Amino acid sequence: MPDTSRQTLPHVHDVVIIGAGPCGLAVAARLREKAPGAIFTDEEHRRHRFLHRYGRSMPLKQVRNGRVTCCARPTASDTQDLDIMALDATHDGWCGRWNKLFKCYDIEHLRSPMFWHVSPVDRDALLGYAYSQNRENELLEIHHCVGKEVSKHIRKRTRTQKCSAHSACNARVEINERDRIDYFNPSQALFSDHCRAVASRYHLCDGVVKKESVQDISFDVVQGISVNDEPLFTVTTDRGLQYARTVVLSVGPANQPSIPRHAFKAFSATESLPQVCHSTQIETFPDTVVRTRMTNGQRTKVLVIGGGLTSAQLSDLAIRKGVTKVWHLMRSPIAIKTFDVELSWMSKYRNLEQAYFYSADTDEERLQMVRAARGGGSILPRYHKKLKDHISRGRLELRTETKLVNAQFVTTEAGGRWKVETEPAIEGIPSFDFIYFATGIETDVAALPYLQTMRKTHPIDEIGGLPCLTEQLKWKDDVPLFVTGRLASLRLGAAGPNLGGARTGAERIALAIQEHFEECKREDKISGDIAATNKDENEWERFVLGRGSKYSCLVEH
């Protein structure tokens, strides 16, 4: 009979990544890459202390000649064989929720440029993938981006007169004309296929991502599992426990979406709202209620609330799906921007605003810089053009600087509809079949249920709902819980919540994890040497006391 008294110890993973979106994939891929591409310049390396600590362990872009100097040794030689597992609450594959929302919103192209992607190999990996697959026709040029800092007057002078060394035509252009090829929007299909190719390249497909919802994270010595009293992470999920030496938190906005309840006075704070939905919780669009009424030949009206790109995409999609008329309310003036952040925050190398951000003295100053750079919601120029076209055809009513102050659900024979009031009041506003809130998600680390234990046992400072991490994106120097994405905005900058921060965060985290495991190896070696020395001393002591044999000492030596 088998010996049932001996139990197999639970497996301890080297790295557990919580969240299988683009940021999580970027970290996993970077941990498996031994020759990553450069994302910092030599000037940045000399200037910023968080880069200086790694010496020559990373490749750098030379500013003067444009060449890339390779690292003195492979940066991931000790991390290629790491046992990596990713946990995702909604899917068992990489970027599942990302792909679902893009499909639901029927978005054809991303907002980001070509050098914002998840591959650690090279800045131009996505561009190279597009050309290698003969899919360059899926790239959409971003107009009025490259060279837009040069005014019409200067461009006219360059055509009509010869420019001298000190003339205005030599004014500094933030984005060089040679980088025009980078300022295209990739299609969603192209980006999704590239992510799958990255996951396949680093063997991150089969069984790496588990569909488990994380409920709690703790860090302490685990009795019966820890070796030499090594602290481990215990990740509690809806399916059991997972143990890890390091944990990476890549959960995007992190918090649950919430609908502003002040206008729904007839409903309690916990009562569900009929025919109301947040944009991130959409399953089918338009909703089944609206679809049924459209099928029955009824005129349908939908209210969209929000001032960002998602609200514009929902308004456009509702009209294309056959909704009779859409009303779109914004509490602020409409903002039209090509990217979430200004061009001064974006470039392949030598990012000016990012340098100012890294040089800030306090986290309060960094928070102000991030908020000023991102502002509120904004709409792409091409979507603004679509909205104006819908307005001209009478299918869309767009009201800016307007707030929803009251909403009552009225049940009739034709079904329930929302009767709303706004500020300022809109005369003749109809009742609506459905209300969509595209109001974003407010990030607050203090409200995350799975971080409550960590906040109690290993407290850190928090500012503006964001944790004050170390420069390595670590929770604390002695707590290897790493954070990337929006929650790391105080270290990554204004582009941290976007794809622009995914690769930068992955680079920092990979270097820190490598350093962590190297330190663990050094400590194990020292402990082993001490143990060997103690063993030798014990053998001699046993021999002197007459309880041991001198030959055992000779064998040891």
TrEMBL record:
<comment type="similarity">
    <text>Belongs to the lysine N(6)-hydroxylase/L-ornithine N(5)-oxygenase family.</text>
</comment>
<keyword id="KW-0274">FAD</keyword>
<dbReference type="InterPro" id="IPR025700">
    <property type="entry name" value="Lys/Orn_oxygenase"/>
</dbReference>
<keyword id="KW-0521">NADP</keyword>
<keyword id="KW-0285">Flavoprotein</keyword>
<dbReference type="InterPro" id="IPR036188">
    <property type="entry name" value="FAD/NAD-bd_sf"/>
</dbReference>
<keyword id="KW-0560">Oxidoreductase</keyword>
<comment type="pathway">
    <text>Siderophore biosynthesis.</text>
</comment>
<protein>
    <recommendedName>
        <fullName>L-ornithine N(5)-monooxygenase [NAD(P)H]</fullName>
        <ecNumber>1.14.13.196</ecNumber>
    </recommendedName>
</protein>
<dbReference type="Pfam" id="PF13434">
    <property type="entry name" value="Lys_Orn_oxgnase"/>
</dbReference>
